[in-house]
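hey so u asked for the seq, here:
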Amino acid sequence: MMWIHFNWARLFFILLSMIIKEFQGEYRWLSNFYPCNIEYEGIAFDSVEKAYQSAKTNDLKLREEISLLSSPGKAKRFFKNRLEDVREDWNEVNLGVMRELLHKKFVENDYFRRKLLSTGNSEIQEGNFWGDVHYGVDLRTGEGKNLLGKMIMKIRKEIREEGEEN
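ran it, C-alpha cells below
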C-alpha cells in the first residue's frame, strides 16, 4: 500500500483562490441589485444600483423618485428616455460614485464586510450576458474591463490591510 501525503493547506489556498465568475447563486450578494441599505447624500436607498442611478442627476426630486422605485432594474432604466436629466459631468464622476457606494456597502455594513472577506483570494468578476464590458466581462466573448470586480477586490484588500493595522 502506498501512502500519499496530502497538503491540506495547499488545497485550502486553492479553494480560496478560485474565480467568482458572476454575481449569481451563492454570490448574488455581490450584485449592485442585491438588497442593502445605503444612504447617499441624505437619501436612503435599498440597493447600490438605485443609489448609483440617482447620482446621475443633481435634481433632488428625481433622486427621491428613484429611491422609491419598486426595483433596481427600474432605476437602471430610469434615464433611458431622460438623457437631458443626466448631469453633464457624469462620465467624469461615475467611477468615483461607484467606488463610494461600494465602500458604503462592503466597509460600513458588517454583514457584507464579512461576506466579502469570506471570498478569500478569489478573483471577483462581474460576468454577464448583457454585454457590459465596462463594469463587467461579457461571458460570451470573455472581453471586459471588469471595473466592478476590480473595485470590490480593492476594497477587500483595503479591509484586510486595515484589519492588520488594528
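The mean pLDDT is 92. Residues 18-165 form a domain with the Tetracycline Repressor; domain 2 fold (CATH 1.10.357.40).
lmk if thats what u needed
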